[in-house]
Each structure stands twice: as structure tokens, then as C-alpha cells.
Design a protein that fits this description.
It is a single chain. The protein has one domain (about 1-205): NAD(P)-binding Rossmann-like Domain (Rossmann fold). The protein has nine helices and ten strands. It has helices at about 10-20, 35-45, 55-60, 75-80, 115-120, 135-140, 160-170, 190-195, 195-205; strands at about 1-5, 25-30, 50-55, 65, 90, 95-100, 105, 125-130, 155, 180-185. The strands form two sheets. Strands 3-2-1-4-5-8-9-10 form an eight-stranded mixed β-sheet, sandwiched between helices. A two-stranded antiparallel ribbon has the order 6-7. β1 (about 1-5), α1 (about 10-20) and β2 (about 25-30) form a beta-alpha-beta unit. It starts with a strand and ends in an 11-residue tail after the last helix. Bound molecules: NADP nicotinamide-adenine-dinucleotide phosphate. NADP nicotinamide-adenine-dinucleotide phosphate binds next to α1 and α4.
């Protein structure tokens, strides 16, 4: 499948590399067509990765990963151009972290709203699925790194079929179906985004990003 990865940071490169490993073609998108990090990413792969603007990538992708900075995501998706998003799944793994006042960051959207919802509202013809935003990107694509892969990842979104498609991608990344928890509609992105302050505290207290939530009952 042709997949767009919007974002040239660690997350975009990590997700893009895994997508190529499991057999997809990837275009990495950026604000500029010749982003240095995107070039470095594409150089690692022989023809399976290409680069372009956010709009080029969104036009290329049948599915779109939003791996942009949370405070820039709406702008990035506007640049991707609404017409390139119609009917497509946007897998949103961004967190609305605002670093403008230093560390720790605050949430630029929270409580009764979320970035996932803002994206769904701004692009009503796209199918937004919030996923993978509750963990370090190394774990997203390699769940077996901790606890034998037995821990929890969440999906939320309004379109049931879109969530099933996303679950297929997650299982191709190594997630066991029993560990993929569908929380409900896109409003459930609020909780997964508001987990970030706790994630950051755990990271600070343990000095490792290689941890995750496991739901037990
Ligand atoms: N690091 C992790 O393990 C982790 C885990 C879970 C979730 N996340 C989330 O994943 C996302 C990506 O994180 P990251 O560290 O890889 O990258 P990042 O530095 O947060 O974001 C980089 C991307 O955002 C774009 N961008 C930044 N400001 C923008 C603006 N004003 N308008 C349009 N685009 C803008 C950049 O565009 P250019 O390419 O043009 O510079 C670049 O592609 C974030 O939302 C983060 O919260 C990260």
C-alpha cells in the first residue's frame, strides 16, 4: 500500500521505516520538498521511500500517518490540502505538547477537547483514528521490546471500519490483537492525550522511555 508519513522527526522516521519493513511504499512529507531529515530517511531505502511536501505525501498516501508536532498538526494537515484527505484514514499519533514555556510542556488542548477531535472537525471527510500516542516511538513499532509484547495500545475514532484497518497495521507492527483496546469514538482521544503529563513524570522518575500501560482486571 502507498502510505504517507507526515513528519520528519524521530517518529516519522521510525514509523516510515517500519512501514517499509512490512512491505509498504512510503512518502515522507514536510513543509518543504527538500527537508534534510526526509532526505536522510529516503537515502536509507532503495526506492521504497520518497519525499515531498505535505501535499505531495498526502496525495500519494492511501492512508496518512500524522507524525507532526502536535501544535503544528492542524497547519501541517492544512498544507496537506483537504482534497488529498477526503475519504482517507488519518492515523493521528501526535500529542498537543506546548514547549513554549519550557519543560515540562503543557497541553495546548485538553479537558473537553483533544487534538484528535480538532483534526476530525477540521477535516470532516477524513477518518481520524487516534493511535500509538501513549508510548515512545521505539515501542510503537517493536512492542516485543518489553514484557514479551504483552501490554496495551489504544485506538479511538468515529469510523469503525477505519479502526479495523488501523488494527491490521498495528498487528503488522507486532501488536497482539488482544492488546489493542478500542476506546470508542474520537472524543476518547482526550484521555490518551491527557496521559502525557503522567507519561513524562514516569519517564523522569525511571529514566527510560521503554515502558507502557498494561490493562489488567
Ligand atoms: N517521540 C516519541 O516517541 C513520541 C511518542 C508519541 C507521540 N509522539 C508525537 O509524535 C509527533 C512527532 O514527534 P517528533 O518528535 O518525531 O517530531 P516533532 O519535532 O514533534 O515534529 C516534527 C514535524 O512537525 C512539523 N511541524 C512542526 N511545526 C509545524 C508547523 N507550525 N506547521 C506545520 N508543520 C510543523 C515539522 O515540519 P518540517 O518537516 O517542515 O520541519 C516536522 O515534520 C509529536 O506530535 C509527538 O508529540 C512522539
Amino acid at each position: 500500500m502507498n502510505i504517507a508519513v507526515l513528519g520528519t522527526g524521530n517518529v516519522g522516521a521510525t514509523i516510515g521505516s517500519k512501514l517499509i519493513e512490512v512491505g509498504h511504499s512510503v512518502m515522507m512529507g514536510s513543509r518543504t520538498a527538500d527537508n534534510e531529515k526526509a532526505k536522510a530517511f529516503a537515502a536509507k531505502f532503495n526506492g521504497e521511500a520518497s519525499i515531498g511536501t505535505f501535499s505531495d505525501a498526502a496525495s500519494f498516501g492511501e492512508i496518512i500517518f500524522n507524525c507532526t508536532s502536535g501544535v503544528g498538526s492542524l497547519e501541517a494537515l492544512k498544507l496537506a490540502d483537504e482534497k488529498n484527505l477526503i475519504g482517507k484514514i488519518i492515523i493521528d499519533l501526535a500529542n498537543p505538547l506546548d514547549f513554549s514555556k519550557g519543560m515540562p510542556p503543557s497541553l495546548s488542548i485538553c479537558n473537553t477537547n483533544s487534538l484528535g477531535e480538532e483534526i476530525q472537525m477540521a477535516f470532516p471527510k477524513a477518518k481520524v483514528v487516534k493511535a500509538l500516542n501513549t508510548m515512545w516511538c521505539g515501542i510503537m513499532v517493536n512492542p516485543g521490546m518489553i514484557n514479551g509484547g504483552n501490554h496495551t495500545t489504544f485506538v479511538s475514532g468515529n469510523d469503525v471500519e477505519a479502526k479495523e484497518e488501523v488494527k491490521k497495521i498495528l498487528t503488522s507492527f507486532g501488536w497482539d490483537e488482544k492488546n489493542i483496546l478500542d476506546l470508542g469514538d474520537i472524543t476518547k482521544a482526550r484521555g490518551t492525550e491527557m496521559y502525557l503529563p503522567l507519561w513524562l513524570s514516569i519517564y523522569g522518575a525511571t529514566n527510560t522511555g521503554a515502558f507502557n500501560i498494561k490493562i489488567v482486571s
